[in-house]
């Protein structure tokens, strides 16, 4: 039995030596390939992460610019509406003051003139 195991082991060693290059192609050195594969995977993940972050930052900048532009436009529109409303109110008040002063002056002058005419 021991002799049979020795013969089998010798045959396996001989086959291993003869077909060593084919065996290395089928079963590559995983320690070397594993490290290279890990480096490649890390580089790929890093590149994809940077690309994704760049896209998100670019999109965020565009959204912020759009919102600031909209906010600025709305603020200007609100200020313009407020100013227009205030101008209308001032014009209305000035018209009322003008009308009231005209009426007051007319009444007082008429009274004074009639008083002066009656004393003469």
Structure characterization notes:
The structure is a single chain. The protein has 120 residues and is an all-alpha fold. The chain has 3 helices and no strands. The mean pLDDT is 83.
List keywords for this structure.
120 residues, 3 helices, mainly alpha
Number of helices: 3
Q: Which range best describes the helical content: under 10%, 10-25%, 25-40%, 40-55%, 55-70% or over 70%?
A: over 70%
For the secondary structure, the number of strands is 0
Give me the strand/helix succession: HHH
Radius of gyration, whole Å: 50 Å
**Average pLDDT, all residues:** 83
Spans of at least 5 consecutive residues with low confidence: none
What is the overall silhouette?
rod-shaped
Summing up helix and strand content along with how strands pair, one would put the structural category as mainly alpha
Sheet with most strands: none
Terminal residue distance: 164 Å
Proportion of strand residues: under 5%
